[in-house]
Structure formats: C-alpha cells, structure tokens
TrEMBL record:
Pathway in which this enzyme or protein is active: Cofactor biosynthesis; tetrahydrofolate biosynthesis; 5,6,7,8-tetrahydrofolate from 7,8-dihydrofolate: step 1/1
Family: Belongs to the dihydrofolate reductase family.
Known EC number: 1.5.1.3
Function: Key enzyme in folate metabolism. Catalyzes an essential reaction for de novo glycine and purine synthesis, and for DNA precursor synthesis.
The name this protein goes by in its record: Dihydrofolate reductase
UniProt keyword Transferase, yes or no: no
Reaction it catalyzes: (6S)-5,6,7,8-tetrahydrofolate + NADP(+) = 7,8-dihydrofolate + NADPH + H(+)
Domain of life: Bacteria
Span of domain DHFR: 1-161
Keyword Oxidoreductase recorded: yes
Uppermost EC category: oxidoreductase
C-alpha cells in the first residue's frame, strides 16, 4: 500500500528554499511516529534536505543521478522502477514523504493520505500538487494542540482511496 505523508499550509505551500517553511515540532513527532520501523520514499531534493538517511526506517530515494550512495539507501532511477519494485518486494505500507515533484507523479498510486493541514498562509516556493479529494474518503481528523512551540492551528487528517 502506498501512502502520502505531508504537511501543507492553507495556501498549499509545502516548501521554501529546499526546506519546510515552518517550525512545527508536533508534526515532526507525528511524522516520526508513523514512519519509524517503516519504509519512506523521497525525491532527491527532499532526501538531501534531511541531511542523512532517517534512522530506523528503510530509506528509498528517486533520482536520475548516481550520486546517492549512502549505506542502506535504496535508489530508483524512475517512478516506474520504484513502482515495480514495491509491487514485487514490499508488502507493508510505504510512506511517500515528498517532495512536490514526487507527489505529483505518484498521485495515481496513492491509497491513503496522511495530511497535516496548517491553518496559515506561508511564503514559499513549492506547492502541493492538486489531489482530487472526490476519490478519497476522510477517515480520521485529530486536532493538533497549539502551544508556545506549535503556534499555528493544525489538524492531522487521514483520507482513504475510494475503491
Ligand atoms: N511540507 C511537507 O510535508 C514536505 C514534504 C517533503 C518535501 N517538502 C519540501 O518540498 C521541497 C522539495 O520538493 P521538490 O518537488 O522540489 O523536490 P523532490 O520531489 O524532493 O525531488 C525532486 C527530484 O527527484 C528526482 N525525481 C523526480 N522525478 C523523478 C523521476 N521520474 N525519475 C527519476 N528521478 C526523479 C529528481 O532528482 P535528480 O535531479 O537527482 O534526478 C528531482 O530533481 C523542499 O522545500 C522540501 O522541504 C515538504
């Protein structure tokens, strides 16, 4: 099963200068909780923004280059290569964690969406691609707790593809 996991602002911004436009530790914890022990897949730019493979997870990266040689990281040179591998070799949930370029190409394959909606318009340069939510059913909403470290209103939403 292929799941998307990301956070976006009210204006659909997800990135700025190669990084996240906000500081929201509660969302980082949510990301860590969902992905630890599981498989994540990123585009090359998002992978490099992490600085290193994320620990206690199987890291997969999609890139046309041969420059990513980090130990234990599985590299795919096309979307098709990734999809074929996943179908054959991965039974568990795979978390696609961005960025926009990779999300856009994988929308047709997404079975579940873990979306953090942040109620704020952010400055940025990277937008979440369009997703037709008519194809998905909202199955869970958890309101995020606003505090001095998490200053925006936010909600963790989960959508399931309608078969
Ligand atoms: N808010 C969130 O939840 C969230 C999540 C993830 C990322 N982000 C943000 O999004 C931004 C990065 O997103 P992005 O769209 O610019 O980049 P990206 O999707 O992370 O990476 C794009 C790269 O992936 C590779 N790629 C894409 N399609 C490919 C294909 N079909 N075959 C082979 N390689 C392919 C290419 O790498 P090569 O050039 O090496 O070939 C391409 O340059 C950053 O600001 C990041 O912080 C936000």
């Amino acid at each position: 099963m292929i799941s998307f996991l990301w956070a976006e602002g009210s204006n659909h911004i997800i990135g700025k200068n190669g990084n996240l436009p906000w500081h929201l530790p509660a969302d980082m914890r949510y990301f860590k909780k969902l992905t630890t022990g599981n498989t994540i897949v990123t585009g090359r730019k998002t992978y490099l923004s992490f600085g290193k493979p994320l620990p206690n997870r199987k890291n997969m990266v999609i890139t046309t280059s041969n420059n990513i040689n980090d130990a234990g990281v599985l590299v795919f040179h096309s979307i098709n290569e990734f999809i074929e591998y996943s179908k054959k070799h991965v039974d568990e949930e795979i978390f696609v964690v961005g960025g926009a370029n990779i999300f856009e190409q994988l929308v047709p394959y997404a079975d579940r969406l873990y979306k953090t909606e942040i109620e704020h318009d952010f400055d940025g340069d990277t937008y979440m691609p369009t997703i037709n939510y008519d194809n998905f059913k909202l199955i869970n909403t958890i309101p995020g707790k606003v505090d001095d470290k998490n200053i925006y209103d936010f909600n963790f939403k989960v959508f399931q593809k309608i078969k």
